[in-house]
Amino acid sequence: MRKNEGAVLAVVVATGISSVVTQLLTIREFLAQFQGNEFVIALILFNWLILGGLGALLSRVITKHSLFFFGHATMNRLAWLSLLLAALTPIQILAIRFFKDIFFIHGVSVGFYPTLAYSFGLITPYALLLGFLLPYSLFVLRNEMPDYPGVRLYITDNLGDVAGGMLFSFALVFLLSPLKAIFVSNLPLLFAAWRLFPVQKRLRPGVICGLGLTLILLAAGIYWERVSLTPMTGQLAYYNESRYGRITVHYDEEQFTLFVDGKPLFSNQNLIRAEESVHYPLAQLPSNTCLRRILLISAQGGMLTQLRKYHPEQVDYVELDPEIARIQFRYGLLKEIPGLNIIHQDGRAYLSQQAYDRSNRKRRYNAIIINLPEPQTFQMNRFFTDRFFQLAKRHLEPGGIVSFTMAGFDNYLAEAQRQKISSLYNTVSAYFKHILLLPGQDIVFLCRNQPLDADIPKLLKQKRIATEYIRHYYYGNLTTRRIDYLNGLIDPDTPVNRDQAPYLMRLMFSQWFAKFAASPVSFIAVLAVLLIFYLARISGEEFVLFTTGAMTMGSEILVIFAFQIFFGFIYFWIGIIVTLFLAGLLPGAWLGDRLKRQGQIVLVLTDILLILFLGIFIIAVQLGGGRLPSAAFLGFGFIMALCCGCQFPAALCLRGDDNPAASRVFSADLLGAALGALCVSVALLPYLGLVWTAVVLMGLKSVSLIAIGSKSWIK
Q1: For 224-249, what is the mean pLDDT?
Q2: What is the CATH number of the domain that holds 534?
Q3: Total domains, the chain
Q4: Which has the closest alpha carbon to 330: 251, 271, 275?
Q5: Is residue 352 part of a domain?
Q6: Is residue 22 situated within a structural domain?
Q7: How does pLDDT run across 115-163, given as a tens digit for each residue?
Q8: Of 196, 219, 208, the residue nearest 73 (C-alpha)
Q9: Same domain, 367 and 248
Q10: Residue 246 sits in which domain range?
Q11: What predicted TM-score, i.e. pTM, was given to this entire model?
Q12: Using DSSP, how many helices (H) and how many strands (E) does the chain show?
């Protein structure tokens, strides 16, 4: 049986590799289809983990009653199910791309409930089967060895997950497109599944056909890669997967448009946006001011051409993704100008470094122009908080100016948008004495410590700067009445937007529902009823793992969020964070297996440690902030995962370590993680901020501690 055991464990490892790569690529696909909306990540993780938990529960029900083809757990059936899992991966990725424009109107934003239903429907076959396979593999082993330890399979699965995370983070994301990565990551699973068949059956026509068909489906995905990204109108001029997201360029009627994660960012014919972004702030600077340095945090088509009219000595253009800058110059969206210095770095991280020139003076700018989308994600929100504006002010020359834009309006400013504008106004006003809002295609914020003049054409005429849109249309579009109306709508009582209390994210989430006349209340109510029903039916040990799963996933999201705030969005590092969380489970499970005879003591002590370490982390973030090294975030993630991994063997041992216990314990962990992913991402962080989210997680774990501690004390 040792040989058979090795074959099953090889399938478990290969499944872990394939599933983690598939999960990460699925998240990226949904981000690309839903314009980088981070709330979508929470919905995907929630659906993925819920379906995995249901799959784990179904494995026991189906095998117990011998339902369907795979009722009785055998190696032969496990092999066919593994081949089916591999075959589903390219189908899932292609379905996400092809069905979006079938279920939804092309180019129209999608609401919360349609997004939830769409993601749930498309990932159900894969995620449900994935959750089914892990306990099913254990049942296969226990048919021959009834006392086979479930924790050994848990450790093996974690080993595969870590390998998949490392493979994706350090290799695939840099080298291969999504469907090529799917092909490579599933090759070990195909080989491992083939080895599960008895030697005398491996070369039979049925097995060869099944293996060949799966291989053909994986290869067909590569063929359909570019076809699946072709736009409905126009041509796909360029496509590439950078480590920061998907970059495509569409060509239609002599216009090139750059898309990043499915969202149109820049085109080569947006003269209005280019003139507004450049001339509104620079017109405010006195004519006798020598423009030594200008900082552009991201840029779009035509901006550098407009900047050249001011003859600046140096223009620092900061763009996180080198590919975006390269593509803009390649397709003529941006043109080289004298003094241009391109910096491939996160804009906020660049300012935080307190860059120095040769004279050892802090690099200061006459103007800082922020050309970024609205803060619809936590990543973008970092550029619209109090700490960022404080940082920007420190890098301005006396009389310097900061400008940024928000979505504009025609005649009426909706309440959610008014609150958003008011929050930003109140945030900026703590650092700049004069703030002017100019309505138009976008609302332009001009922030300065010296008076501002709304008569932009007059200022440009004094500087002898020629324009097209502003010269002919400014007075007709931006009347004094419109400007006064907009500036008079500011609500001074609206909370400011902070790094650790992102008020704008709360507004964006509320606006998402308001836009579709929907409310999250019904979803939360249904979820609460199902949760109460589930919690009423589980044991104390399962409840501990349920809360541990919630705390693990919640802590992982907290670490990523805090890492984004202080270090910028670096996809490479986030991949490492996820991998370290997975890696921490391995030594934790090994240690827990050694201590499982003291099960309840282990659960109590690890609960205490989880609460303690999360409290220390939050205090360190509050006091240290950006001064904390990246190793502190990574180390915290590893320690939290280690404590969580230690609990699984103890809980499994207390439940008897039989087949029903294994499936219930697996599902409790996954369902808890699903709750943690959804609540922290969608509700707690936007509404409560970093600190209070951590307090809620510690409170949840305290309930678990009281429950298992009381049980231990009674015994």
Answers
A1: 84
A2: 1.20.1250.20
A3: 4
A4: 251
A5: yes
A6: yes
A7: 888 999 999 999 999 999 988 888 888 887 887 887 788 888 888 988 9
A8: 196
A9: no
A10: 232-267
A11: 0.82
A12: 26, 11
